[in-house]
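Attaching the record inline, Q. Sequence:
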Amino acid sequence: MPNKRSSSKLLLFLVSFTMVLSYSNVKGQKSTTPNYIESINEWHKLREAELKSPKGWLNLEGLFWLHKGVNSFGAGKNNDCVYENPHPSDVFFPDHLGNFIFEGDSVMWESLDKYMVKVNNQDMPLKSKVCIFNANGLSSDMSWIMSGASFTWTIIKREDKIGVRFRNLKSDNVSSFKGIAHFPINEKFKIKAFLQPPIETYLMISNVLGQQVASKNAGKLQFTYQGKPYSLDVIDEGEEQLFITFGDATSGATTYSAGRFIYINKPDAKGNTFIDFNQAFNPPCAFTKFATCPLPPPQNSLPFAITAGEKNYGHH
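Structure, as predicted:
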């Protein structure tokens, strides 16, 4: 899938880590309940640590979509990309830090003569230009630090849109974060499943930008709950786990209205795996308005309540 959901490598590690602790293989050899509870609690701790990390979702304070040509960037209201600093009294950000120049499939950064910006942690000479993104896979990390404030940003691509993802590493959203409420851990929501191979190569997944994204189809995950059969369409992102976005009867009530995400282990040679809804987690859009989350396809809306995993967070 072209779009990654989160800091996915760490999140994939979290899923693998807890799966190792909670069961040894897809034949259903479960550990004792106390060990399982401990593994899920550890998963929650690691998940929250990832959210607070420099690449987590809590520190996002801007998402600026670029137009062709020169895009001025700074706190000044006349810029094309305006950082609306939520704490103007104690955090300084320049009125005009520099310019993004979007030409063809590339984005250049142009520094001004006042402020030193780093590109991939290297000081960039003042009054200079450097390519920070192109269609060949170049994507640079940029940063600006002054008076204890620390900001980073990078370029993202969402189908035909090119944007700047902007982070304040000293964001109050990080320091005020108190964790995510979740349902009591219930092992009945760790369910055996069978992955039916896909018929179509791609799934079309909508995102919050209104785009339709062609996502690699991993197949249909079939499982039984309370004696009734259900299925979920699954996305293959090329990692050791598969990705699901789903809704259920709790969506919009006790859980995030646009659904939740979950990773599962790829199946064994016979197609067997587990889906552990105790590891269902909120999408980035539950934490910030500056994310571009995928939405569950209609067929992934389950008619029963999955009272497992993370509950809703905040007011996004």
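Residues 100 and 123 are 17 Å apart (CA to CA). Residues 61-175 form a domain with the Tumour Suppressor Smad4 fold (CATH 2.60.200.20).

More tomorrow.
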